[in-house]
Amino acid sequence: MKPRMEGYCEEIINFLPDATLVIDSDGYVIAWNREMERLTHVPASAMLGKGNYEYALPFYNKRQPMLANLVLLPDDEVEKRYHSVERDGDTLVVDIFIPVFGKNGAYFWAKASPLYDPAGNVVGAIETIRDITDRIRSREEMRRTGQRLAEIIDFLPDATFVIDSDGFVISWNKAMEELTGVPGEEMLGKGKYEYALPFYGVQKPMLANLVLMPEEEVEARYDTVERDNDTLVVDIFIPTFGKDGTYFWAKACPLYDSSGNIVGAIEGIRDISDRKKAEQESENARLKLAEIINFLPDAAVVIDTKGIVQAWNHEMELLSRVPAREMLGKGDYEYSIPFYGEKRPILADIVLKPARELESDYAWIGREGDTLVVDTFLPKAKENGGFFWAKACPLYDSGGMVIGAIETIRDITERREMEERLARSKAELDIAAEIQQSFLPDTIPAITGFDIAARCVMAKEVGGDFFDVIPFELVPLQRGTLGVLIADVSGKGVPAALFMALSRIVVRVNATWYPRPDKVINSANSIISKDSRAGMFVTLFYGIISEEERSITYVNAGHNPPLVYRHKGDSFEELKATGIAMGVLDDEKYEQRTVRINPGDLIVLYTDGITESINCNTEMYGDIRLRSVIRRSASLSADLIVESILNEVLEFCGDEQQFDDSTLLVIKG
Questions:
Q1: DSSP character for 469?
Q2: What sign results for the dihedral spanned by CA atoms 527, 532, 537, 538?
Q3: What's the rounded mean pLDDT across residues 593-612?
């Protein structure tokens, strides 16, 4: 056994924040620090003196060279084992994924370099290892959600971009394209501050980068910056932007994942050159303030420290029905009369002169530094009163002295009413879901020689998938037959659910009138097409199983071709479309076909929610996987086959949200 490292060197290595091992020139472990013990769950006492690559076992479950070994070998040995490696002199740095480490594999950053004696001879090597799994997976999660985030950000009125925690652009909205003249496809994925080029002409940190940096970095780059918790807001003049330079307002804040970890930052930028020029040209400070206030989207009032109104913006005129000329210069709480019907302090007064007894007048009051925010009901503000959101904060002069307060007020009555309507809608949707579920058969009627099972899984409360089984012994048709039906309505939500109900009723009624599937679907399509004024349609497979003939006679109206698994030949057939989707053309003629169902054969009817289910990598489940699970479970009962397919789809999708209904109907001969 080789000796361990001694003296202060061992203590230093033990205090290193990264997992670290040291080997001598013969490949024997002479240091294995505490972080390495924690990472591998292998104590140093069990590893010191070990060679023959035994130190690789906790990582790879097999003996193989580590990076520390490779720094002692020729370059071609390194290139064989790592796709990409960075070199800094005789130091190697790699990022690597080890699939056998931990439950689901792990990503590591590793750095190794040789160790020399005083004479310059290589006497060993040191390697430090850092688990970067959380960082890598956070980046992957951020990139996956990037597209969805980009769609939302595209609707923002301000030029907006988003970077991940490594500074790479994952969203560049339309307003930003218009502002900079740079299309999103040219900027997405760019890093190294390349997104600063359209503004500064050089690559340098933007405000979004600075929210991820220490506070002194921000102060070094901006003369003035406003902070609202972890949000930064600045006004800045960029002389290189546009013909004569441009003034911008910018706001940036970090983005967090579900665990509270920072995964990136977002920055909104607004061209405020016109406003700045107006401020610079204005000689009257009060008029300048009033002009700014008048651009606010919310009703706003400004009072000085004596409670005298200095600004009463246009939105406040509309809300209070009091023109600014009648309110400017007024004091003694007269500005509260339009809202409360009496003179009393408002939120701006409480900011200037905190009064706990006044705060009790509000059902809820929030504090953000020296800013107050409330939701309250104002009985006199509208004909029947209304709910309002208000925000107030002090105003300071250049020396930091309080010179007044500003209060903004927003009418949220409609929002409150909308919330109530949404709550009612949710309750109605739950009822609709129960009604829709009642359309599906509780039990499958028995038919001699066949085993049938079905299941419908809705992606939302209500949907457009459905299946049906029609027992013809209850109607004047021949006994020993059974109608089966599976369908998928275009669209989502309530419209699809209503169209589903119409389609089901129309097909079921026609099935009692006509003994032939083609007659049923031709007649049903004519009715549905005439009632389909919203451009909706339904893909549908309808068939009649014959106990005597051991066959199914069917019509496929543009639906996913059901799969027929032939037990004897271990092969698949498809029941392809015999016409287009129902509801498209009212004069479409549908052809019927018949196939035999031998003992042990399977017919699997499904909607595209099965094969188009996606996993976290946006990979679809697909037809190949479906055929595979059918083949593996062919010996089971129809109910267990349905269960097997749905379970495999669920396992494939994991936690990825699905947006389409999934329906299965299995017929086993």
A1: E
A2: negative
A3: 94
**Cα distance between residue 627 and residue 612, in whole Å:** 14
Rounded Cα distance, 630 and 624, in Å = 10
Query: What per-residue string of b and e applies to 517-531 under the rule 16 or more CB within 10 Å gives b?
Result: bbbbbbbbbbbbbee
Q: 390: exposed, middle or buried (C-beta count within 10 Å: 0-12, 13-18, 19+)? A: buried
Q: Is the pLDDT of residue 643 over 80?
A: yes
- Reported as a single tens digit per residue, the pLDDT across 378-429 is 776 667 777 888 888 888 888 888 898 898 888 887 777 776 676 565 544 4
| Alpha-carbon gap, residue 59 to 234, rounded angstroms | 48
Q: What is the mean pLDDT of residues 176-197?
A: 91
For residue 321 the two structure tokens come to: 């029905």
Q: Are strands 226-228 and 169-172 parallel, antiparallel or unpaired?
A: unpaired
- Mode of pairing for the β-strands spanning 481-489 and 465-471: antiparallel
| Domains in the chain, CATH or no CATH each | 8-131 (3.30.450.20), 137-277 (3.30.450.20), 283-411 (3.30.450.20), 436-668 (3.60.40.10)
Angle in degrees, 0-180, between the axes of helices 285-294 and 273-281, rounded to the nearest 10: 160
DSSP structure string for 288-299: HHHHHHHT-SSE
Strand positions, DSSP E, 239-328: 246-256, 262-271, 299-304, 309-312
**Tokens read off for 555:** 């019509």
Query: Using an 8 Å Cβ cutoff, are 484 and 605 in contact?
Result: yes
In whole angstroms, give the CA distance from residue 642 to residue 606.
10
Angle among Cα 99, 620, 105 to the nearest 5 degrees reads 10
Q: Quick check: 513 and 523 in contact, CB under 8 A?
A: yes
Residues 6+ apart with CB under 8 A from 195: 161, 163, 169, 172, 187, 206
CA 278 centroid distance within chain: 41
Write the single-letter amino acid at 250.
Answer: A
Q: Are 135 and 33 in contact (CB under 8 A)?
A: no
pLDDT tens-digit map of 63-94: 999 998 888 877 666 667 676 788 888 899 99
Residues 230, 253 contacting (CB under 8 angstroms):
yes
- Exposure string over 57-76, b if 16+ CB within 10 A, otherwise e: eebeeeeeebbbbbbbeeee
